[in-house]
Batch of 2 targets.
Target 1
Amino acid sequence: MQVAERQRSATRGAAVWASRACIFTVDVEDWFHILDLPSAPGIEQWDQLPSRLEGNFLRLLDLLEEAGSVSTCFFLGWVAHRFPHLVREAARRGHEVASHGYAHRLAYRMSPLEFYRDALKARQVIEDAAGCPVYGYRAAGFSLTSRTPWLHEKLVEAGYLYDSSVFPARRNHGGLTGAKREPGWVRTPAGEIAEFPVTVVPLLGARLCLFGGGYLRLAPLGLIARMARRVLREGRPVIFYLHPREIDPEQPRLPMPVARRIRCYVNIGGTAHKVATLLRQFPCGSFLAWMEDAGWTKAEVGCASK
Ligand SMILES: [Zn+2]
């Protein structure tokens, strides 16, 4: 489909998706997949560590189900290789299965070729586990930056239809402060790809994301809800993101500086309840469902269950 046609379709679909314009996303990884931390174990050690993923992930799927919502689950390829039944379970329950790369490496620390190979391997492993195509990608740590101008092109070459790696605000790993805030198509020499930037709002003189990470866990529920309604009024989807470890107060803690520890673990005990409350006010769907509603794609969600 040409860009103009896609844009016309998107406009036509806008009224349809207004009622399900919130998207819930889960980066499916374990408690030890913390980026850029000297004490974090390397990939050669991951197999030997006690995993807490299954319990946390299934609890999160239950929570979504109780709220009548579905999500996009960005699986690490390594997770899909080790726990293929969790990929199948997500697809069986109607969630969209997508890719978080294979080895959880920051995009800007890889060459374009290394990035392409990691993204391709992840897609293949996750598709094998799910038994259905994978369309979406999210880089570890939202690490699409000015140092990775090739990232979208490599994703098209690796077979992806959309990306959600742009963090249009300041951030430790990555961050593109001046980036567009709305979803749209990106043209690359290899073809087009849709980009869904993480949702940010202007607050206290800066762009902030209240819908994932430390801010979601720390900010008052009323403020998050008010800002979500404002984003919806502006015609943008609200994109929430969460890791299964963020609802697990019992997880082992990695040694790290105090500021980082606060960011990683603040209010983990209250997050499941907070997310459940938000989901009651803001029912969520997946990226692929949003794209279908907007007329951006005819791809189907939850194909493994069919
Ligand atoms: Zn991650």
Target 2
Amino acid sequence: MSEPTAPVPPEDPRARLQERILADHPRLGPDDGFQFACHPGISCFNRCCADVNIFLSPYDVLRLKKRLGMPSGEFLQKHVLMPVHKDMKTPVVLLRMNDDEHKTCPFLTDQGCGVYSDRPWPCRMYPLGLAAAKDTPDGWRGERFYFLLREEGCRGFEEGPRQWTVREWLEDQGIEDYDLWGEQFKELTLHEFFEKGGTLSPEKMHMMFTACYDLDSFRDFVFGSTLLSRFEVDEDFVEEMRYDDEALLRFAFLWLRFSLFGEPTVKAKAKVVEAFMNSLDKRELFDKGPGKAPEEETR
Ligand code: SF4
Ligand code: SF4
């Protein structure tokens, strides 16, 4: 099964896409049904795995780089595009199509998807899309609903009598893990910091990109810097992070919520807090004027 997604508009890609979907598509709930089948014998087989914009989540990248046995840096260099637009609040990565006549997906084979069990979330979801209404107190996180994408030339809707409910399709396609990771990622991308107009400096954008998508470089940062000596991180968790990308991504999300938005998701060690307080004391002293001890002021 493959996934044509809607083309990315040149600006503000995710928000504009959501707005268009809300206007154009009937909403489906978990128990609503639809008819669809995709299989190697179908006349359109493999045609949709070309010239499509597929946004990759951090978990998509984690699964794909593991599947391909590649370090994250190599995967990013070979297989993703990083569009940049002034309105983008967080880094975005897209799967890079081949530079051939049809712009085919690099993972496409004559037999279908060559990374099928690790295919990205949008490829699993098709023909379903997921959206959320914005006019709720928690922004895009509110009122989730599904809708049917009917890509031109897709014969899957005419195939056989197979009926699915939305719930059955999601289960069949193994969406649950992807959704769980997606929810954690949304805690970052939909953070109230952005709702209130906050923007990330280039350095913080880079930190977010590295922690979300370039896990091997993030691992070098975690284990090659003073981070672990400055923050309280459970020893077993630290050992897990050395070898397990999922543990590392869990920490990456916690670290980003702390370092980008100041949430107490990571705790500084007592000695670091003490040193920080001492430095504040010294600054206070300095602000009162060079050479003046507090006692002098009271004389
Ligand atoms: S990852 Fe697989 S399913 Fe998705 S576009 Fe590529 S070949 Fe098709
Ligand atoms: S049925 Fe649709 S999803 Fe399946 S191969 Fe054809 S175009 Fe792609």
